[in-house]
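SEQUENCE AND FOLD
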Amino acid sequence: MKNKVLAFDYMLTLFKRWHEETAPAGVDFTSLSRLSVLKLLFFASAPKDDKDENNLLGIFDEFYALPYGPVESDLYTAIKLGQLPNYEVKERSINIINPNPTYNNLDTETKSLIEGEIEQLKVKNKDLIIKSAFDLVDISHQWESWQTAYGFAQFLGKQSYKMTPESIKDDRNKFFGN
């Protein structure tokens, strides 16, 4: 779990760089919401196409279908408990605790994998990082794996249902918006 939290913290640093490269002047990374970063995590973790074997679902493997799209439950809990070392992700903003984080405790292979998946995500939709939270929710709702799991949750009278890594990998509608 600790490695998962550190990997997500590293991902937030890469999201920050991407946001700085893409956002119009005056729009700051800290304005991203918890909902936004949880959707971006899903898109970064999921395979970008049927040939993407090296995805992040081996690390981020506890996605649940909720009304506002997929949520990685371990990281949601870590965020709520304030366990990220360099960021405080609030409901409507992000506080940067350490503006110059180092990730010496995160192995090189994990860092490279995260970097590669974010680069692939940029190719799919470079503006994804500046979409509103609800635009990201709408995009996540296009995924068949979310639709199936959330439909099952509703059938059972629940608010959430586990999305297996296999269902996400096998999703026929890997959609990242336009």
